[in-house]
Amino acid sequence: MLPGVFCAKRKDGSVYYRSNITYRSKHISLGSFADEKxxxxxxxxxxxxxxxxxxxxxNVSFSHYLLNYEKIVSLLNYRDNQLYIKxxxxxxxxxxxxxxxxxxxxxxxxxxxxxxxxxxxxxxxGHLYVNDYGMQxxxxxxxxxxxxxxxxxxxxxxxxxxxDLRYENIININPFHGVRRHIQNGIVFYQTYIHIHGDxxxxxxxxxxxxxxxxxxxxxxxxxxxVQKNFPTNYLTELSAREYAQAYIEVAVSGKYKKYLxxxxxxxx
Length: 269
What we know:
- It is a single chain.
- The protein is α+β, with helices and mostly antiparallel strands.
- The protein contains 6 helices and 14 strands.
- Strands 1-2-3 form a 3-stranded antiparallel sheet, covered by helices on one side.
- The relative contact order is 0.06.
């Protein structure tokens, strides 16, 4: 066998070749290949990346290598930062880059390193997510942003860079369920909706707090009228129990919504 290559067999008996390299006493798998020649080429490329300091994370051309881009990032990070991470992460002093693709690179706070070292970043339908305990969890939910939130309406990026996911760069405009922020003639207001066979308008409110409480009140009314749905709840931690109770009593809910709930309970003719 050529250096860095060993032969393996699949369950069906077919042969393939694996490549690996040892660097700083760490055994690193470089992947599986159909033939011995390509497996050896991957070994040569890995050795060059680990030794040639002129090749950096900023000037490496991913398309010039047989190794995939994720492995290249891992190798360069291990060489430069002495920490091997299987996911395509490259460390800086106070943040790190996660290479979703060679051209799509996200920036995270260093405090998130442990999480993204063990959770692979994925993208579908324009949404970033990870698989966490068998569930798809959106990355923005880590910042208190809801799955259906709209950029520049419910949240925005302080420096206008949507690839910069450091906490300081994300402004959560609307952290509450069922609430939508609007601006009309320079005036900010909030509309509250509840989803029962479609979105139903609960009311229009001057403050985010009242809009969030109105949603909770609408949920309670729905349950009282027999709607069997597990609605999320808005938590207003800045209010004491007494303050919340008073605001709950005072906040108005659409009369049309109350009528809609009553009509749902009427027996069908």
